[in-house]
Design brief:
The protein has about 325 residues and is α/β, with parallel strands linked by helices. It folds into 2 domains: about 240 residues, Alpha-Beta Complex (Spore Coat Polysaccharide Biosynthesis Protein SpsA, Chain A), CATH 3.90.550.10; about 70 residues. The protein is built from 11 helices and 10 strands. β2, α2 and β3 form a beta-alpha-beta unit.
């Protein structure tokens, strides 16, 4: 590794090498620039560790840390950040695929906007408004959709109260100022939400950039642990409530998606980035349809908000006129 990397990418590994970590590392190998990749393995099988060592030997940017116990998502990331040598860090799930240029773009945006303390991209799979509708059935198809989404920079940034930690960038000093992720959450669940709650309480600004898309497979580590997962989620939800005085609560993702569509409408009416925002509005309107409530009463009020937005973008696509009709 050469001196002074512009970013430190932290990845926590636990088995599933071929289906998760291997594609992730391959995508990082294709990224330009002098950044470091710190892989913290949480006591995987000997086979997984051997493959990690082979990957590290093939790329001088990879630094491998092998834990003798499973320190969970929080502990693994804390270990990785402690090893980081850059002022900027990106916590990256091992079940992601990163399009070329994304690491550089996220880091550059942080440097351009020093008042942003945390930054996340959009994706195909996440629990908040970072998720956009994708029709693809495999990573290649979904990445093509992500490429179309980012085909033109709109410089459209959205403030939020929760960021998904499948990929989150921040200055290392921000991470350290909040004492990192809380290891009391054990193997996983709610430690990222807890971190965001603490960041917001400290007056920090959390931002989504719509100019970066990262593919996220989702649930690769816990997919084979269903009973254990339910118990862990219940336990950590209770811990979260104890720490914050309430259960994790935020504005529902469907309302956040509508809010973004409203921001698009305002920007289009002002003549800003009309082409790319028209495309993104089309995608988010599909997201809005996917998020329709099951309750008839909730659906009624939801559609009252959605239909004017849908009508606006339909008319704009048809006529090119950004005025309400």
């Amino acid at each position: 590794m050469t001196a002074d990397p512009f970013c430190s990418v932290i990845i926590v590994s636990y088995n599933n090498f071929d289906v998760s970590t291997a594609p992730c590392l391959q995508s990082l190998r294709e990224q330009p620039g002098n950044f470091e990749i710190i892989v913290v393995d949480n006591n995987s099988t000997a086979e997984t560790r051997k493959k990690l060592q082979q990957s590290a030997a093939a790329d001088q940017r990879i630094q491998l840390a092998l834990n003798s116990t499973n320190r969970g998502y929080a502990g693994g990331n804390n270990d990785g950040v402690e090893l980081a040598s850059s002022k900027s860090i990106i916590l990256l799930n091992n079940d992601t695929i990163v399009p070329v240029g994304s690491i550089e773009k996220l880091t550059s945006l942080l440097h351009q906007h020093p008042h942003w303390q945390m930054l996340g991209p959009v994706t195909n799979s996440c629990g908040n408004e970072q998720q956009i509708f994708c029709s693809g059935t495999n990573s290649r198809e979904i990445l093509r959709e992500g490429d179309a989404w980012c085909s033109e920079a709109a410089e459209f940034a959205i403030e939020t109260d929760i960021l998904g930690f499948f990929a989150v960038a921040m200055p290392r000093k921000v991470y350290n100022s909040l004492s990192g992720l809380n290891e009391a959450f054990g193997l996983g669940f709610y430690e990222d939400t807890d971190f965001c709650y603490r960041a917001v309480a400290a007056g920090m600004k959390l931002v989504i950039t719509e100019d970066v898309f990262i593919y996220h497979q989702g649930s690769s580590t816990f997919s084979k642990m269903k009973d254990e997962t339910r118990k862990l989620m219940k336990k950590n939800r209770q811990l979260f409530k104890k720490l914050h005085g309430s259960s994790p609560a935020a504005v529902h993702v469907r309302e956040k998606n509508l809010h973004i569509l409203s921001q698009y409408r305002t920007a289009v009416q002002q003549g800003k980035n009309t082409g790319i925002l028209q495309h993104r509005a089309h995608v988010r309107l599909q997201t809005a349809e996917e998020l329709r409530p099951n309750s008839l009463l909730k659906r009624y009020f939801y559609l009252r908000k959605l239909r004017p937005l849908s009508r606006f973008f339909h008319n704009f696509r048809k006529t090119g006129n950004p005025q309400e009709r």
